[in-house]
Amino acid sequence: MLIQNPLFYKNVVPVDARLHENLRIGRPERPLGFAREANVIPALVDEFELAMADLPIAFLPGPELPAAVFVTGAAPGTNAYVSDDGLWSGAYIPAYLRRYPFIIGDTAGGSSVLCFDDTYPGFGEVEGERFFSEDGARAAPLEQALALAQTYRDAAVRTEAFCGLLRDFGLLQTATLDTTAPDGSKSVVHGIMIINEAALAALTAEQVHKLHQAGFLKAIYSQIASLRSVSKLSPPVPKKPRGSAKKTS
To answer: Range of 173's domain?
Structure first.
């Protein structure tokens, strides 16, 4: 199996009708607890417009291409969108989280196969929905997982192409995101990149046309607009319980 364990995945194995004929998947006690300490989560270019009002979008430098990410925390080890009980508090849930614990892997022969992280606490043989029906066919949960994982993979290819054009056209600049907590303390997200609006304005007509033809112009402006959501990285002001005010005389 030609696959490395990406973020959150600990032990990726291919789905096997014989080995996993009795396996079931259910909802664990803390559904998104695995992402509780992730302050960045991979993003797809197809998601930018849907997520921009709720999640700041940025890029991380890479050895070959920059990587698109949602910024979910003001500091490493924090996630403002996942509660202590493992639930998502935002309006848009990233596809990367919705795909987990499944993923598409490649075999040594070049074919693709559905895989999953077998350490995910929602798996078992007693509770939940079956992977396979009695006759060995993929059941609905597995079919849905396959469809989402394949859709994610296709969108990831487009995202790489998008990031490649941003790099080639010099459209990225290093930046920091500043947030202020209710108590006045400040946090800064370092090591990210965002769209350079001056470089965007300086593009040639040919470059703009290429971005338009690829369907990426809207994604560029969505990334810029998403930075208005930075304030959501700070925890909300705690609500005072009713009846807690002291009387004065």
So the answer is: 12-231
